[in-house]
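quick one
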Amino acid sequence: MIKDNLENKTVKIHNLLLSSFLLISIFSCQRNERLNKPNIIFIMSDDHAAHAISSYGGIYDKIAPTPNIDKIGFEGIRFENVFCTNGICGPSRASILTGKYSHRNGFYKNEKGGKFNKDQWTFPKEFQENGYKTALFGKWHLGSEPVGFDHFKYHDNKGQQGFYYNPIYNENGNRVTEEGYATNLTTDFALNWLKDEGEIDKPFMMMLQFKAPHRSWEPDEKYRDFFGDQELPYPKTFNDNYEGREQTAGDTDMTMDFFNRNDMKLSPPDSLTGRKERNKWLRSGDKRGFGEGWLPKSGMTQEEARKWKYQRYIKDYLACIKSVDDNIGRVLDYLEKSELDKNTVVIYTSDQGFYLGDHGWFDKRFMYEESLKMPFLMKYPGTKNREMVNKDFITNIDFASTLLDIAGIKGKEELQGRSFLPNILDENSKDWRQSMYYHYYEFPFWHHVQPHYGIRNQKFKLIHFYYNIDVWELYDLQNDPEEITNLINDPSYADVIKEMKLDLKKLQIEYGDDKSLDEFRSITDTDFGHIGGKGIRE
Ligand code: CA
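structure w/ calcium ion:
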C-alpha cells in the first residue's frame, strides 16, 4: 500500500517534471530571436479590406484567393485585430508615418486643404538618420512631397491619387509619365531599386505602396474579365435596411446608388461630344442630387440595378487585388533568390478596410468593423512556418514605434503608439491595451458620413455621432458581429453603456482628444488652408 502510494507519487512528480519541461519548451519556442538591423519592406495597398484576403476568410476566399499575401502571414504572423484610427487615406497614412492621432499630426481629412505638414517628425526620417537607406514607391497621397527618403517615385497626378493606366510618377522631384499598369510598374521600380541597392553596405527600409484597389477599380488588361459571367456572392448585410440607424448608416452617399458611370466602365453616348458634357455624364451619380440611382440598362428595376452595380464593382475590385497579389509574389521570389529574405522583414497592410457590399456600401470612413479593421501580416525571419496569429488590439499609430523597434532604433520623438514587437518575440509579454479609440472628421464630402468618435473593446463598440446630429450607438460584437442592432436604448445594457462612456472619456484624456463638441465640429468645418494646397480627393 505504502509502496503503491510512493510509486504513484513518483509517477506524479515525473509527470509534473515532464509537463513543466514541455511547458518551458513550448514557451521557449514562442520566443523568437531579435534580428540585428534587418531590412524592412513595408507594403501597403489602398482600401484593401481584410475580408478580401483569403487567409482572413470571408465569402471570397475560394473565388479570389491571395496566395502571395497569405504567404507573408504563413511564414510569420497574421494579425487579426489591427484597427485604423481615422478611416480615410491621407489621415491614416499621416498616423502611420507619425505614430500619432490626427489631432496631433494635424491631418484630419482629405478634403478642404488636407495636406501633410512635412516638417514634422516621421519614421522614415528617423530611419534615414540612423544609417538606413530609405525608398518609397507608388502611392504617397499626402499632398506634400515625401521627405525622409533617399529615393522616391510616387504617383503625382489627380491630386496624388494616380492613374491605373499610364500613370505620372514623381521621381526624386521630376515628373515622368510611364507606360503600363500602375501595380506592375510600381513593383518594377521597387525591384530595380532593390537590385541596385538591396545588397550593398547598409540596411534598407522600403515603402512599397500600391494605388490598387482604390476607386476607380480598373483591373490590368489580362484580368479585365477574370470572373466572367458568374454571379459573385453577396455579403450577409447587403440588404441592410438601417433600422435603428436611420440618421447614421442610413443617411450616406455610399450605397450602390452612388456609383457613377465611370466606376462602371460605361462609355458616354456619341451624341455627347464636349469634354465637359462627357465628364458630367460619367461622374453623375457621385452624390445626392447628381443622378444617384441611375439604371445601367433601361428596363432594369432599382433592385436589379443595385445587384448589377455590385457585381461590376466586386469583380473589378477583386481583379485589381489579383495584380497586387501577383506582384507581391514577384517581390517575395526576388527576396528568396537573392537570399535577402534571411534578413528582411516584410509587412503587408492597407491604409484602412473597405465595405465590399457590406451594409449595401462601398467606401470606408465609418467605425464599423469592415473598414475599421486593417489587414496586417508580417514575415519576420526566424518565425518561418509558424503561422502565428496575434489578436492584440493594435492601431495604425503603433506602426512607427514597431518599425523602429524592429530596426533597433531608439527614436527621439515621443509617439502616441507603442511597439508590438515584444508581443511577437515573446507571446507571454502581455502588458497591452484592451480597447482602442477612433475619431473621424470629414463631412459631408465624400459620401456623407457623419463625424464620430468611439471606443471598441473585445465585446462592445460605442460610437457618438456628434456633428449636426446627436446619436449614440452601442453594438454587442459577440452576439451581433454584423452590427445591425443598435442597443443604445436597451435598458439591459445600461451598465455596459455607462462603463463604456467612462472608458471612452479616459481614452480621450489619455490621447489628448478631450475637447468640446464645438471644437470637434470646428475641425470638420475648417479649411486647413494654412497648411496649403488644394486638398486631395477621397
Ligand atoms: Ca484608402
